[in-house]
Amino acid sequence: MNKVVEVNNLFFSYEEELILQDIDLEIMEGDFIAFIGPNGSGKSTLIKLMLGLLKANKGEIKLLGRSIKKFNDWTKVGYIAQEVRGFNESFPATVKEIIASNMYNEMGFFKILNSDLEKKIDQTLELVGMLDYKNQQIGNLSGGQKQKIFIARTLVTNPDIIFLDEPLVGVDTESQQEFYKLLAELNNELDITIVMISHDVHVISDQANKVACFANDSIFVHQADGFCCDNYFDTLSDNQMWVERHQHQGGENAC
Ligand SMILES: Nc1ncnc2c1ncn2[C@@H]1O[C@H](COP(=O)(O)OP(=O)(O)OP(=O)(O)O)[C@@H](O)[C@H]1O
């Protein structure tokens, strides 16, 4: 099995504030890894480092076998940032236009969607169950529907890995379940590696095969199978712990 991400001896600070210290992490092809941990523990920062959006103070990151400093095959990498959920409601674009905006490389000199590319958009929308919404304005969709469109936008380039930064904040429970089902299909059937920041303990027990717990500038990687939430709860503040336990109560995989 190939390594999709390799992080070795990584240190990162924002000016004086040390955020990540001596991090080692391997993400293998086909993994579904959940990043969990308290607010401010460095989860988004590590994803941004893995995407080359931030530069490490020390250490090495390889993405798809290539140093992040030289990596350029961005069609193989999807990223759905937290900011997506704050997407401007009045942004004047249809679902089709949003997806096509990730296909410029394939459109050729005149930036025209030929019938093959149209077909690809349709197939991708079909895959996420949103074909009927192709000509709708993106601003008219619900939070969960928008997230599916952004997944589709990522999928048109056939990525090997998708990073998701807390994609479902503010999305209702039913849409969350549908979205997790979709991610599981992408992971199991298309073998897309998934890295997802989540505060939802259900994701960990039901979807992920690995869990990276962030605490005190470090991370601890567990197999999701034998993962005991109590280890995780130890890293949380009292208030957060209550919320997390409350969300988790009654779950089949509760510790
Ligand atoms: N651009 C920045 N400049 C300075 N400090 C930053 C910047 N971005 C984040 N930080 C700080 O770095 C720390 C880690 O932030 P990060 O967003 O990676 O945490 P997180 O674990 O993803 O948190 P959350 O769960 O709240 O999204 C926090 O203390 C945050 O305030």
TrEMBL record:
SMART domains named in the record: AAA
Record keywords, A-Z: ATP-binding, Hydrolase, Nucleotide-binding, Transport
UniProt cross-references to InterPro entries, sorted A to Z: AAA+_ATPase, ABC_transporter-like_ATP-bd, ABC_transporter-like_CS, Metal_Ion_Import_ABC, P-loop_NTPase
Protein family according to the UniProt entry: Belongs to the ABC transporter superfamily.
Residue stretches making up the ABC transporter domain: 5-241
Annotated EC: 3.6.3.-
One annotated GO molecular function: ATP hydrolysis activity
Name of the featured protein: Zinc transport system ATP-binding protein
A Pfam match: ABC_tran
Classification of source organism: Bacteria, Bacillati, Bacillota, Clostridia, Halanaerobiales
UniProt-listed SUPFAM superfamilies: P-loop containing nucleoside triphosphate hydrolases
Record's keyword annotation contains Transport: yes
Domain of life: Bacteria
PROSITE patterns to which the protein is assigned, alphabetical: ABC_TRANSPORTER_1, ABC_TRANSPORTER_2
Leading EC class: hydrolase
